[in-house]
Amino acid sequence: MSKATQSGLHLPPTHALAADDALRAAVHQAVADVRARTPLAQSFTNFVTINLVANAQLASGGTAAMSYLPDDVIDIAAMCGATYINVGTLLPFYKDALGEITSALHDAGHRWVLDPVAAGLGATRTAILTAMRDVPPTVVRANASEVIALDALWGLSDGEASPKGPAGVESTDDVDTALMAAVRVARHLRAADRDGLGAVAVSGETDLVTDGERVFRLPGGDATMTKITGAGCALGGVTATYLCVAEPLVAALAASLLFNRAGERAARESHGPGSFQTEFLDALWAIDADTVSTSTVLEVSR
Amino acid sequence: MSKATQSGLHLPPTHALAADDALRAAVHQAVADVRARTPLAQSFTNFVTINLVANAQLASGGTAAMSYLPDDVIDIAAMCGATYINVGTLLPFYKDALGEITSALHDAGHRWVLDPVAAGLGATRTAILTAMRDVPPTVVRANASEVIALDALWGLSDGEASPKGPAGVESTDDVDTALMAAVRVARHLRAADRDGLGAVAVSGETDLVTDGERVFRLPGGDATMTKITGAGCALGGVTATYLCVAEPLVAALAASLLFNRAGERAARESHGPGSFQTEFLDALWAIDADTVSTSTVLEVSR
Amino acid sequence: MSKATQSGLHLPPTHALAADDALRAAVHQAVADVRARTPLAQSFTNFVTINLVANAQLASGGTAAMSYLPDDVIDIAAMCGATYINVGTLLPFYKDALGEITSALHDAGHRWVLDPVAAGLGATRTAILTAMRDVPPTVVRANASEVIALDALWGLSDGEASPKGPAGVESTDDVDTALMAAVRVARHLRAADRDGLGAVAVSGETDLVTDGERVFRLPGGDATMTKITGAGCALGGVTATYLCVAEPLVAALAASLLFNRAGERAARESHGPGSFQTEFLDALWAIDADTVSTSTVLEVSR
Question: What positions does the entry give for ATP binding (chains A, B, C) (predicted)?
């Protein structure tokens, strides 16, 4: 009995993404471009995993800068390709600061990735995330529970999804239960984007990536990624790194595929969560554009 | 000449904890239950070692969430088994936030572990720790100097202890000099607890754990644990993880024993503080309930 | 065509520092004294690399304490040998806090190291760094762009340097382009110091260290040091550790030489940025005073 059946969902049929699909070439180009250009993506992120986010961005070929003051973030946005914003470990001043920052990024047409950590928990976080509805990110990277919660906070839901609600920072929902919420959030992002672009990446046992039209399931990765803190945050940061050189759907696919391949390699080389983290950064560094772009990708058939 | 003699203390006689003491079975159960249930323990902790705390909780079998806003911490407390609070790297708003949080935890009967980092230093920290006297934690995990300072701040001391005072975050006192202070603090915790439970763990060359009645000395561990930052904080965090499934004395014993065994194993596998930290997380993951529960434990004879 | 020629600078001729130069003996003594005395150097530093700063200080033989509240920092300054202040990841209250702290350190004649991360970016950072002009540090540790920016912020420049301006936290300038700025900043530090001492260390492909009179170029290190976050911050922290036992020029030289030797060793032992960081901490621990003090040092001829 599959997980999808267990959760009462009937999974839609999928087919393998063709070897010559233009998306694969675009993913290859994104991975290669980051290695060639070392783009700067800045972050406003939580204190738990901030070091891993920066190191993952460096290991993937980019550079990193982390800031919290609007004057810093807005100054740096003018000189970098994309920004990563993660709402973990909130401080009191973030509510005003993130309002100012997201408005400025929106006005500038600057691309950014949102990681709505623990969406649905805490009055301050709820206020922050709700306010982002009208100045939304270019990409959302989250677990299933967070995507479902964001969909509800933004009033996009039409009652299809049945979230169990958040459980701290861990997802209590299967990725597939967030499929329709992810599609709705992606369409909302695209409607607000000046170029009509946007994507949502849902991390889980099998990742899901969508631009609101096409939906992809990315098998692989390794369960040890849930035994270190920050694999998801680092994925959000590296998605911003790719967003410096590629369109949102391509950036989201490239980052998730790179992370799955790196997780598999690290699992083979390690013997516990400590050595896994070390090997994971080495793997991000070592894995090449060919390996990423030829990964198995399943597209949900329409 | 022993350290105890040097410091002018006569160490009380001890005897080995019997193989069939009920505490050993309870420690075994705690270690196994955490592996089976992956309980969530949240943390309000310092920025230096926050990543290691989370990773140690994950490697020990639990899950982690870190927050600073009262609305976050109080929301999460309602859905998790225990909370870890560490007063390192204070920010200005912590004084009010920690007052609100500790009162709410007390009113809810929620179990929590206090790590009174650098107790005795700084007017803000002194105010924060003093205010905790009336809404105290379930477990205190600290070094000898910090336990002695907390005993004094809370007015529990009757002049027996002779603290040298704090020296930053490093202890300047032997664990055994804190014996009476630890007993007094533990009794204070139990008097304030609705179930009459509480424990104090003093970390050092030989750890000391007490519930205010029984006193245990835990030999072992490795000196390299003092050459990485955060072994003590991580121990506090994992004590909270065990506190989700076990009573305070058992949780304190289980966490300290797991850390000593992991430290010994990591020392054998590593060749410096960098590889020690990696191997330490791997060892937390690998060491089983039998190894922890059959450790040498010396009980102070009464 | 050399980099210096490319940037339009004519590099001054250098000669090797003699094996019996008194500086080498002083560097040897500093490294040995830190191992023997485990001095405490405290830090007020950014959240990205705070863990690596502390672990690098411990691996180099010292101890660490991190704080942000003036009452904490000023209390600890009274009991430690030196302080490290890094202006990355600013929070709103830092402007007032750092003003209070740097004035107190200046009044007490307490030695401290400034890491002017991203100098020139952000109105708050500019205000903080400008205010330090009159209560300056004992040592500045920075990349070339930051030294050039600090020289300009403090009004020391006479138009010789041609900074390209900051690019986030990465230097866009060669170390040698900062030579005259570094000399001017070092002279400013010395003029403000009650003992007339001070030094500037510029990190890059070839490090540059000066006390405003003598100028040294330190070849070596490894490019992987730029593929992990925080090698520069950790160098600033360890410079403060050495400043507990040695004069500013000696501390700056010893720390930079130790880091270059450790970087070379870590590069040989690792196969990516993850394992590099692990091996780097092991190397800081393993490298001895002889290796550091007999390093190649090139002195700019006068």
Answer: 141, 203
